[in-house]
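Q: I'm writing up a methods section and want to include an example of the input and output format. Could you take the sequence below and give the corresponding predicted structure tokens, formatted cleanly so I can copy it straight into the document?
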Amino acid sequence: MTLTACGIRPTPILTGAEAPTVSSHTLTIYLVTAERDGLVRRTRDYTGAVDITTAMNLLLAGPNDEEKKLGLVTELPATSSKAVPVLDVIVMPEDVAPPTTKWAVFQVHCTALASRAKVAGVAPVPDQYCP
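A: Here is the clean output for your methods example:
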């Protein structure tokens, strides 16, 4: 009978840092149809921490290339500024005047509701406008 061994001595258990994690979420924003007669629900994948402010900033960024090809638009003014949270309120950038068109108001309202925000101080938007 023959016995063999590898000759490597046991080593202690080596510990490392925590495993890396990636937090990926799907957010919903609302854009206006090409015909400007309704809203369209759009979902976007986002990596990182998300909240209602993240959704509002995606909305402020406007349609992405795919959405532009579909003819979707926004009635919110173009801006590179960001919305910021202040206590329980989302403050829109100064260069984004209060929405003046029905669809701009509905875009903000429906996007906020899709993010499970409580919308206060505005008249409720009928459900058919937030598909």
